[in-house]
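For the sake of clarity, the format in which proteins appear in this thesis is described at this point. The fold follows as a row of integers, each naming the local backbone shape at the matching residue. One such record is shown here in full, so that the layout can be seen directly:
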Amino acid sequence: MLVRLEQISPRLGDLDYNFEQCRKLAADAAGDGADLIVFPELALNGYLLKDMVSLTGLERDDPKIKELIRLSGKISILIGLVEHGSDHFYYNSAFYLENGELAGCHRKGHLPTYGMFDEGRYFSPGNRTRAISTKFCRLGVLICEDAWHPVNPYILSQDGAQLLVVISNSPVRGMSETGMFRSVENWQCINRSYALLYSDFLVYVNRAGCEDGISFSGSSHALDPHGDLIAELPFLEQAGATVEIDLDELSRARIGSPILRDEKFLASLNELDRIKKESFGG
């Protein structure tokens, strides 16, 4: 399975430019033999939208979405966007397009509203965390802050995910003792932990570029189910890379480290139910 990582720099609020950039990259990747192309969070819209959320939200039958769906007959596509839901709310969503269909959708459930982040003011939260059945494998999708809540990759792994895909708009923040930005090191740390603990492949695609003086770090990467790095894109720059994912490696990894097999799922549910009753009643 060949997966294309596209670390793009969207233009804030410029749907036409962003769509054409993504469409062309997907078409080129299909021509090069890639099976799946992954774009960052809000690839069609840009990040610091504020009041532009409602102006740039796309319904599922929007012509731009229909064109990407048509293109998914040649290459599967995972792309982040502002979704204008049928309930007239706006979601920070990821669409999974495959075989000429919208095959799956994940709506970001954890909307950061602290520091420089203000997503809770403009977006509605999603309330489902489920793996998607694809023609390749079971796929788990998380959007940025979702991945900072360990319950989400845990649920996806228990739901059969073999490939975890995390898309983000992570800015440059903090400096570590190594001379690298702490935000980059933190992403590398948590993603490696999830790949290693759940013996999953993990693809992380972050955006590059700047908006209103905020720089986005890029540094997208892919990890194998042993937690080893198999690809890494450059810091800050727009870039792309194609990685080969050998799903047969999952069996070898899970035999050597059967942590997922030995997870006490029902015991965890019982304890969570106890905590729920003690904390919230009922």
